[in-house]
Please model this.
Amino acid sequence: MMQAIQFASRPAPAFQLRETPRLPDWQNRCSSCSLHQLCLPTGLGDPEMHRLDRIVTRRRVPRDSNLYRMGDPFTNLYAIHLGHFKTHQLSTDGAEQVTGFQMAGELLGMDAISTDRHHCGAVALEDSEVCEIPFARLQELFIEIPALLRHFHRTMSQEITRDQSVMRLLGNMRAEQRFAVFLVNLSTRYVARGYSSTSFRLRMSREDIGNYLGLTIESISRLLAQFKRQGWLQVDKREIVILEPQTLKALAAGT
Amino acid sequence: MMQAIQFASRPAPAFQLRETPRLPDWQNRCSSCSLHQLCLPTGLGDPEMHRLDRIVTRRRVPRDSNLYRMGDPFTNLYAIHLGHFKTHQLSTDGAEQVTGFQMAGELLGMDAISTDRHHCGAVALEDSEVCEIPFARLQELFIEIPALLRHFHRTMSQEITRDQSVMRLLGNMRAEQRFAVFLVNLSTRYVARGYSSTSFRLRMSREDIGNYLGLTIESISRLLAQFKRQGWLQVDKREIVILEPQTLKALAAGT
DNA sequence: CGCCCCTTTGAACCTGATCAAACTGGGTGG
DNA sequence: CCACCCAGTTTGATCAGGTTCAAAGGGGCG
Model:
């Protein structure tokens, strides 16, 4: 615990969103996006999606760059179009806490609404693309498109329940169960996106996983070795193959 | 950890909201409520507050009764008018996780919006009163009162940042720091409500505190004893007097 | 090839859990 | 009124899971 922050030996590039390429408009369509049933426009018809399209800008975010940092003023929400992110908080004493890993279709930045400043930072775990959504303009659309508002509320509420599940994980579970929950959770989210439930690549370092789960990097390493030894997983670097999904689910459920 | 649930020897009364007294209308006014600058109508003018009044019903909630249970269908949000609550999750294996303690002016039930079912239960820690807010009707008001919608978004966002702070607490801090954070947090919230920052009564049991902080009841007891021994606190049952607020704040900040 | 970062593995240690028992105060019934 | 009971709490002793410290292994990339 109390993991001190390591100042990245590869220093975080001074990434400025306004300098990043804006992709051409024709690529910039919710209606032609494979994620529109997972993402913000869930449940909208074509005309409404079109109105959303008009306020959204697609941006590239290079690996290891900050989409936003803790304390940055809040102007935009971001929907992940492609890639993976982590969100994290830094406390004054230099300790980091990873608060989540996000993948395509998920929304970033909702924690910033309350104070108009970001309460956590978001870092791309690989080269990624986001849809930048100016919150002021989104608020205008809320009034005109009730279904959009309703889905936005569901999304925020989902974020709350997600965070509370992590609280249960950190408050109640031992290391083995935490790690099983982590793997099963990733698996579930990949299935929802049409990927394999049993075979995927971890986009985050052991350190990030450990930090997220309230464990040290050594513990994560040992857990991976143990799960492998038991025949529940194949592990090769960041490539994971789940061999015993039922066992992992049972572990995760605590039974 | 893995605290098994204790089935209350005082069995939870089969409390039904619809049977509880509805207080007379004249008591049922946001505009005459001392909390309106903390609660949902923050920032509204008198006419808007009046429209909110018309959809809100004040209800009594006896101590130890469930305002709602995990899994209940979602129809209302609740603003606490008087008293204190805890929210908690129960997992299939019988473990409890207390996800928060709420006091006057705070909003309950936002986690239920995403699935139309409550993801945690809310229990009154003392005889309390809530303002029941039918969510369907609130949604209608959102369209008509943009300031209300904006404040609602802030409130949900605040809940997210609050939960993420608890994640940091559970993931990063040792027992002593967790407990200091807990006390400082209560103190801060009481100040915002016009009460003393240094002298208050814990409304929750040691068990609830421990569960919330990811510690055992014995640890809480020892921490109280230690803080007392150090001269930082006076403790008499649930009555707390903070003698060294600066020390506690420093501990909480990890410095 | 050699450097560096990430990861793995081993051994000792420590914090907080667990187990056990005693204490407290409020409520009840004799 | 007192004896008893019971839930909640305190305190002590032991235990163990996970951390910490240390060192070695493995890949990727210049």
In short: The helical segments of chain A are 46-55, 135-144, 146-172, 175-192, 206-213, 217-229, 245-253.
